[in-house]
Fold each of these.
Amino acid sequence: MNAASSVSVVDDDPLVLRAVGRLLHSVGLAVETYSSAQEFLARAGRGRPGCVVMDLSLPELNGLQLQQALCDAADSRPVVFISGQGSVPASVEAMKAGAVDFLVKPLNEGKFLSAVRAALEKDRAARARQAGQAAVLARLATLTMREGQVLRHVIAGKLNKQIAAELGTAEKTIKVHRARMMHKMGVGSVAELVRAWTLTQPLES
Amino acid sequence: MLAGGPRWVAPALAVAAGYYLAARLGFVFTLQLQPVSTLWLPNALLLAVLVLARTRDWWWLLLAALPAHLFAELQSGVPSAMVLGWFVSNCSEALIGAALVRAFVAQPFRLDGFRNSGVLLFAAFGAPLASSFLDAALVRWIGWGETPYWELVGRRFFSNLLAQLTVVPLVVTWAALLAGGLPRLRAARCVEAALLGAGLLLVCLLVFGVPPPSAHFAPALFYAPLPFLLWAAVRFGPTGIASALPVMTVATIWGAVHGAGPFTAGTALENTLEMQLFLAAAAVPLILFAVALDERLRLERESRAQLTHLSRVATLGELSGGIAHELNQPLTAILSNAQAARHFLANKPGDSEMLREILDDIILADERAGHVIERLRAMFKRAETRHESLDMNALVREVTALAHGELTTRGVQVTLRLAERLPRVNGDRVQLQQVLLNLIMNGAQAMVACAPDERFLTITTLATGHKVHVNVTDRGHGFSVAPQKLFEAFYTTKQDGLGLGLSISHSIVTAHRGRLWAATRRGGGAAFLVTLPALAPA
């Protein structure tokens, strides 16, 4: 697990906040505690790795609103909701908005810890994907216009001859462009190129 | 109770003194040239004492009366055999009456309800009757005086019947009253009682204490004390009538002994009997009337208390979700702390500082859950109304704590604006909490349709002059009907509401000599104002 990732706990009840924080700390997780949504938004730097455990019924800004605020701030940290009352509409709304889990207090230790670990894993995977995507995009930016055109055609599964015909140049020229493009993209095969390309595409939902 | 003495010394001395005084009074109430007193009080006093006492204490209470009996009677020149004989018959009267009461009514005896009063009147009738046969037989056997047996039975019976009707209700009602501690009476009530007593005494003296203008007037005069007796029965219940009847009885006999009043037309014997019959006949229906009225009022009070309790439980039912939350929080803290402790013990068992912190928090959480339960239990309890000096600020804080979970769930933000140095008020804690809880819940429910960031509830306390005000203001939909309509029973705008909350709150506040007002708030919402008299100005 990434050493820098931590679990942020948000609960307005100091006793519960301390207890949940301790429980997470006791299994070796890094924990930060916040007693209100405002404090969390102000103090917890956005874009930090980790996940958020928050109470649903926080005063003033409640859990769902805080989740929305995180979304708006493009903070992708996964959220685990904990709530005193297991209200069905609220849990549906939370899950729809992308919460990892919705747990009812008092917390079942096993379910809670596995939900938090799942959330951390989800964050780690997302961050890894993001990192890969950024690398591919950087490589893409180094391509010339012609190399970019060739790339699209290669991905579309066309042969050099077909590409040359479409772009109106010699097959030999295309071969050169293609080799340079493959080199710049840092891939050795068409399959690798396709995988890298897919990273830059928005995920199908 | 005498300091250091056994616990029976004081009651025994009191019985002896009471018996002696009652006997002296009995001699005073004896018409001239008559061997039997018109109103022989000691037996009735003994009966009343036995009715109130535990059965196993009876023997020494009766024994305590013996010296007083001997002391009083031996002064009057009666043969000692007769004196002892009378003590036996007097004790038998008290025993018969008390045993009758004990057989039908469980301790402690109270003069309420038809059953109890019926049993008491039956004992007041049966005990003198039964013991008079014995008493007359003893008198004839010892040979004291010349009066024939049946005449003795009759004279003694009526004398003692009147005494029983006069003394026993008086002692029993006052004993019950004083057993619950001397009630704090309002000044108005004391003035009323004083007026009633003075009026009754004046009328009785005018009617029974001066010679009648003419014999024809006599029957009409009998009714003159009746308004006062009814007043006593209606306004002061069994205790009132039990206290008023002796006034009339004493005044009548005192008048007759001094040759005044309407009972002076016939021979001494005729006058005595006439007077006894008149007084006994007046006493029985008046006592029954007072008891019946008292019972009805009590039932009404009880059903009102039940309704109040019912409405309180209904309000608490609405809070149940929030209360579950209030209990869930500390439970969550306890569980997670305990589990964390288990992990710490497994991973780094040396960290005792961390374990101490965890245990401290577990104790805190447990105490918090305990407070929630404590508050709830007080509200659920069907308690008798108990007035005490209260701080309305503290009451507001307690109720908002009780409703905290529910208010949080409803997204209602509560602002408390509590006055510093608020004078205390006199009231029933649970009932006033019920009123506040009701107003808070009404306010919260009225804001269901509001946007979450507009659900503001403000509770303000304020003191002006000799009054304490608590204002509960919401920003909900307000109300469109006349304010007094809100306080009507069964008027409700909620789908599943009983329509009792505000009506009961209103009657609670009124019973506290306060007022409950409703007003619409400018800009939407409703304001409810509870005004209570302050105990002492700030």
Amino acid sequence: MTVRNRWSWLGRVAALLILAAVHPIGAHHSFAMYDHERTLNLRGTVTRFQWTNPHAYLELDVPNRSGGGVTHYSLECTSINMMQRAGWRSSDIKAGDRVKAVAAPLLNGQPAGLLLEVTLPDGRKLEPGVPAATTFKRTPDTEN
Amino acid sequence: MPATNTGPNGARGAVRRALVSLTVALACAAAAAGQGRAQQAGSAPAPDITGSWERYGFGGGRGGGDPQAAALRPPPAPQPPLKPMYLKEWQARVQAAREADAKGQPLATGYTHCLPDGMPSMMAAMFPLEILQSRGQVTIIEEAFTQVRRIHLDRPQKALADVEPGFFGYSVGRWQGDTLVVDTIGIKEDVRYQNTPHSSQMRITERIRLVSPQVLWDEITIEDPVTLEKPWTVTYAYRRTPDYSLLEYVCEDNREYADDKGVQQIRIGPAK
């Protein structure tokens, strides 16, 4: 393990501990309606980035894998105050942007999810700072 | 009016007026300079707690990097010492919320309806706080839902019947040495702290003090002759965040809503 890798690993452990610690009071709203056991890896075109409190929303058209057409997903973020503290700006995403989103799906099967991470057209990755984000098991992305 | 006029409205009068204005301006400036600190009757000025703060010490969270953190972490919060019939109701509510979460069907809360915490929940400060000390008043703002409470200094508390119940109640406070002691009454019965039932007679006493130059504690004691067997004390700790300026927060479009069973849902779309 190189020195750099070791630090990166330590950083991840530290981040996990911090997120686990803030969990009890990290959110005003329950995220229990989202599946903690799998994530969606979505590539699509942004139709709207709703920059509002209490939560922001990323609206995404995702081409269907078969049969043509698109499925529209509404992806819930956290408070825009939390997002601003994590470095986000309302101008980071706009309609027409092609992005990759990692989201925990709604348990009731509707096409919606909790955004955990988004990769912007310029390759920049942003996280909305979902409390205890590490408790959502990530499904490997098979489309790399 | 001729410039040589030496009457009260003439040049000499103008000089006198200018001197008076200057004196008033200097006095105002001095008063303004002192306004950052609340006036304390008699002796030393009140401690300076003006500025922004973040909740601190909840199990090593954001304050975890501070070497002094462990020593300045407040004692853990006990369960509410409710009288048996209220305890039963509270336990049932907590259990129902836990079971709903486990089923992935969380129960809607006040937040689902864009409602603020109210007192004393806002002092749990999920989002940053700002404290402002001005003459005769300490104002506490919580960023989330732009919650504001006003603590009127050195004034008698009102009679309960004279306070219209609300989210933040009516607060009076006084500095006792280094501690701001605040008395709050008049919290609406449906404004609940940690789901705990309370009556219109609930009284909140806070002891707010700096435990180090950078760490502020708020020891909150709740008394309620109807629902509580004995006073219930919970302490929150905050650390100074001098570089942070509170952001605006308007609950503008909550797409989470309560369905007819009281379960939280979200509105899907619109696409554009």
Amino acid sequence: MSDEKTKRQKKNFVKLSDMAREDGQPLLHLENEDLMRLPPPLDDPAKDRPWRPIPDSAREKYECILDDTVAVNVPKPKTKEEERELVKKFLAGLDKLFLKEDNWTFLQPLVLSMEYCVKCQTCSEACHIYEASGYSELYRPTYRSEIMRRLYFKYVKHGGFLAAFEHGDIKLNWALVARLIELSYRCNLCRRCAQTCPIGVDNGLIAHELRKLFSQEMGIAAKEIHDNGSMLQLKVGSSTGMNAEVVKDNIEFIDEEISEKTGIEVHTPWDVQGADVLLIHNAGEILAWPENPGAFALILQQAGISWTMSSELAGYDSVNYGLWYDDAQFARVALKHAEAARKLKVKRIVLGECGHAHKALSVIADRILLGEDNIPRESAMTLLHEIVMSGKLKLDPSRNDFPVTLHDPCNLVRLMGVVNPQREILHKICPQFREMHPHGVDNYCCGGGSGFAIMSGNNFEDWRFHVSGRKKLEQILNAFSDCVDDPNVNKYVCAPCSNCKGQFRDIIAYYGLWEKYRIGYGGLVELIVNAMEDVKPGFIDWEWH
Amino acid sequence: MPIFEVNGRKYEVDEDGFLQDPSIWNEDVAKDFAKSEGIDELTDEHWKVIHYLRNYYLQYGIAPMIRKLCKETGFKLNKIYELFPSGPAKGACKLAGLPKPTGCV
């Protein structure tokens, strides 16, 4: 271990018992000097952007006692009695996490993660947040898990004195619970730690289960993913607030734009009974990256695929934010997705470029979609691969003759093993394709995973760009190290996931990477259409990326 | 809720500084919020964007696609950023008294 690393670790060290400190002060403060060094041209910490402080208005009202930021905005209890009630609720929720009647999703891996960690810390070295923070103890993946583990042995298993001796004691008070709420939102749930653990202990799952406890038992969740996310989706049909009328109107606009731009008349079909494919986009694409659904429509149409979109409630928005924090919300949305497909009697659902939607509907929803709800689900990656390799589209790779690198969305790649289809497409159509290192199932999260990409309240963005997004930023700069200084070369970070694209858009803007270094970003289908011989040249509109 | 205080007036805003109650909006609100977005004076070009956003919001209950905003106003994206340095969502929508856009946008 280098002296520098040891020095930083010492400066930012916190003990497990600090979580219960009642001084009302944060446990950690980071300076840019403390953070992992970035490669050139962002290698000077003195020139890195300053962090905005948490606004006083937030400090007055909310619990801001973990670190330099605040994500969840938990109101401060007014009385000691209120604090005791909240701790009681927390304990009731903790018990439920370990009952099979209440935790139908993740009980077994949770118990195994509680019982079998040997504290080897292999996982810590794998965590991009821990590394980027300059190895701050608070962000060590096992720090959160160890708190949870001690609570489990003391309060769920009632281990008494022996458990305290064997597993370590822990003091439970409101300060600890308040800090734990925030700490459960300092993990991207990318599960790189779980992948590297020799026995499969899953710190990401532990963070997830904590969020679930807070949401399901205490009604506490980040507003962006609950009130303005899954609740809005169940009410109007989409977390973006688009109802069926608005989404159809927007798609009509996109069809017109794409037809004009490509010279090929494009028509998106709605609510076609018996179509082979129901395509569900993350509806954010429609509003923020309309060229993506436009490119999908063009490709499917030109490849002769029988497909449709659905105007059912949630049938046109694949997001399922419940995946990140609440099993009940998750199940409600997953059932809506299945219902939309069932009503149209489609042969299968294809998920557009959205990572968490893939995991939600393809994998986790498998526990609840039974009988006629169990409609086959497929990734757009494999369908696009099939189309590109079939020769149905005439493709000219020279149209994509600029440096392209590929970001692997964690949910799609590490967690589902969809690794090669998108790479083989890029190898075929992008002559200057280069991998990041590491990549594939060993990728790093974009830094926006688990909902962070849409969370920006108070000063959360400063944390998101300096800490959780830092490792990916390093990878991007390294992938373009041969040309980063050349302002005449446009560079493309291909990210087949809306959430990751949101993070890239924001971090690119934060550091001025487009203006200074011509680093842009976009999805996969845009590159395919950009290479189509029948399409007017110049589909990729760099101004928008 | 945080309070945004300017020109002797007080507004309830959310954690991102967006007007808590979009229905109380009028042109004075836009003027009051402009300074905090680094805009000295609202020109006809600003008002064209603000009124388009406002009308779209009243009709559909959400913000329009940015592409639509550009097409309808005739302003390119970089022009929107010139007018509203924080961009169409965090800048222009805020001045037009729209709630913060939601979902993965």
Amino acid sequence: MDGQKRLKYPAGIAVVIFGVLLLLLLLVIVPVCDGQVETASGSFIPMKCHWMSQAVLLFACLLILLGILLMASAGRETRLMLLIVTAACAVCVLLLVTALIGVCGSPTMRCNYATKPALQVFSVVLLVFSGASIINVARKKK
Amino acid sequence: MNHKKLTVFTLAFENIKRNRFRSVWLVILVAVFAFAIFCGTVLTGSLDNGIKTMAGRVGADLMVVAQGYEVDLEDTLLRSEPSTFYLDGEVLEGVRGIAGVEEASSQLFIASLDADCCTVPVQLIGYDPESDFTIKNWLVNVWDGALGQDDIVVGSLILAEPGDQLVFFNKVYNVVAKLDDTGMGFDSSIFMNRHAAQVMIADSGRLSADELKHRDDLTSAVMVKLSKDADAQEVAAAIQAEYPQTDAVVSSDFMRDIASRLTDISKLTIGITVLLWVVAVMVLFFVFSIVMDSRKKELGLLIALGATRKKLARIMLLESFVITLLGAICGIFAACLILFPFQTLIAGMLELPYLLPSAQVIFAYMMLSLGVTVAIGPISSLSFIRKLSKTDVYSLIKEND
Amino acid sequence: MLLNVESVSHIYNEGKPNRCVAVNNVSLQVGEKDFLCLTGKSGCGKSTLFHMICGLLPPTKGKILFQDNDIWRQDEAQLALMRNAQIGYIQQGSGLLANYTAFDNVRLPFFLHKREGDGAERAAMLLERVGLANKAENYPAELSGGEQKRVAIVRALMNDPVMLVADEPTADIDEESTHEVMRFFSELAQEGMAVLVATHDMDILSYANRVFKMKAGEIGEE
């Protein structure tokens, strides 16, 4: 029983930390550009990095939730599923930053030279972490 | 019962697995040092590369600016901090007439140009393609014909490729060429025909009435190339005598001045990097020796059971090799995750000429860092086993009893 | 004669102020089926003598013939092979390698030199013989002192040596286990193995067919 407790917390705590870190990255450490662009009709709208940031923020909240669930769950299969979802979140963040929404085009803009690499590195690290945890959980016998 | 054979591999892996705490800390330690020496080496190499590139970059022997604007020139050339400053246009022709001047070309610097490509300020540099001898050295591609009124050349960080079009002040410009990476202010600059720039600046309504009068020969700096035997100091003095309202900056001095400051920084970073290497090698060597020392009894036992020292050396070599390899790969992988995605950010934060060396050089740095950190564990274990050969097995077994 | 120790001495720290004669001019003959006990107080030189016999510590003077070979004239590889295949040495304390299971500890000597097969059958048989078949996959830390000792003993037998050398094999185990171990040694001696045991436990001398007393590095009469 004691052993199981020891196994169950670190991954959950780590995922919560990942989620909080992602929040901090987006809100404090490397926020996206705050400028607005003028549309053809003359109104001002935020640039696309803003929308990317909003989407990734949702994933940050999702990660925190996943971490809490991981801490609360002891079943091997449940934990496996939660970790797979965590890995999927990492892939989603990576795709949002690079392909699905992306950041502003110019390499001289903050979202391009700071936010984008930070989020890319973040998702790679999260992916490696969740991959390792999945293998770790899957390998353990019931 | 199905049992694996006991080989050097299974014995070594069992040792690593059963001492997970020790193994993990060793891997982390090796990773930290591999990370530090690889990062340190790449940073030092990039600074060195940036400074070397800068020295050849200006390409002019003398730069004539309005009196007191030397600092702005430095900002523009080094730090991509856009600035605007003007000089009396007739200086150009006058400079051309001074003895010792072989070529002279004027450039117009305009700061804070808003363009739809960029929300951050961009330095616009108007230059004279016919007389230019500084910009053309950096062109990565050659195009036919002269730089027309609607044509622009972009720095390496500007998001446009030759063939693209960019709009400034409701006017469409064709990108005809792009510059190579310079690691300096040129990277975020846009170059255009000086006359086109003059028109643009005049139309933008940013000029004072006085400046508008001179709009046709508005100039920020005159770049001067000297004839072979001319003395830069003398020519500079002659220009300043003729035009007292100017500063004639001798670029070797200007560059030497900046370069010497940079070289000091570069020396410091090289020093720190060398120190880092020495410390890393020493610490890892001693840590591995201490670990081996704590296992004396284990080694003595194996010898008592009839293991030859060769066999012992092989087990320990493999064990330490696996640990250092794992650590070095983790450390260098982590370093790559920081160094390459964030290179623009690092360059910006350093405010120094920072230019990553070529891929081959970086690969060489990587192999060097990897090689050294991976080798230390096995070398240290091996030297321990050698020392062991000279002591009696008896004292080994006895020692920790 | 299987083992012939000829006037062997060992002096620690020769030429230094803390010079110490551990073994002084000892001669000893051991044949097959001999069960020999060496008694004496701690520090009388028993362990030093055994280490010299097992090829772990070179004598300062004299020579040791094993199967008519001067063992200290062999090179390192031959010496290692002799320790591995012909002499089973059971040292003081547990002497097990903590990183390997009981089963792998027993098999280990088999793999230190080139041999065919994986030794699994013999290792299992040996563990069975000392009643530890069910503990084969346990690590030393999970075994009791007596169990560890038994594993160390069968490990010494793994390569079917001609001579077994045990240094204080009963020092840290209970009385019941002590007699079990000694009975096991008698069986081995009857099967033809030469058994040398160093002990300061007078109760177990009755198992041996030859008993020597050591005092201050010198060996007394039989």
